[in-house]
Amino acid sequence: MIVSPSLLSADFGYLANELDMLNNSEAEYIHVDIMDGVFVPNITFAFPVMKRIDQLSNKVMDVHMMIVEPQRFIGEVKKCGGDIMTVHYEASTHLHRIIQQIKDADMKASVALNPATPVSVLSEVIADLDMVCIMSVNPGYSGQKFISNAVNKVREAKELILKKGSKALIEVDGGINETTGKLVVDAGADVLVAGNYVFGAADPRQAISTLYNLK
Ligand code: DX5
Ligand code: ZN
Known about the structure:
This protein is of the alpha/beta class. 34% of the residues lie in helices and 20% in strands. The protein has an 8-stranded parallel β-sheet. The longest helix has 15 residues, at 149-163. Bound molecules: D-xylitol-5-phosphate (DX5) and zinc ion (ZN). The site of zinc ion has 6 residues, from β2.
């Protein structure tokens, strides 16, 4: 099981300590949410912060771009230490080209789907993808309630991946805790993003460990 703690819920006043805690945890990824106030109704941090996160972290940087025209920043994400770059289907007119550009930049390519977007829209690109991100909340904020239809979408994504001979991992993002995490893991999820559940816990490392041991 791959756990990807979402830094959006971290205490930014103590970012180095939070990253130190993650470095000593069972998390394999670190989830970095970039928002532009246009694609989603919220703005998060920009590239200088991301660069510093990369310097202080020994984890795989899983960058979730919730911005319009994400292709404009592929080079910048790579420069700031991005290992996996997730773009939204809904924000990417020429999705096939963007996927190739991310791979040409030597990053893993991943596409996220909003709750209202069916899995079938990925049928022509799934074989090229390293990861699919099923949003289990409407993107924009951490601490929202899990949308249970995501479990069906994970199952559908798994079927599509098998049918098309894809090696893509399935990530689920939004409202994950030990209960919702178990539901999506049983449906075929490989990567669990968790913000509030990890950073809101009395013992964040233990929370990561609980998710890590769900499979
Ligand atoms: C939401 C972000 C998520 C968020 C998850 O738009 O993409 O990564 O931080 O936070 P929780 O786990 O609290 O829902
Ligand atoms: Zn995210």
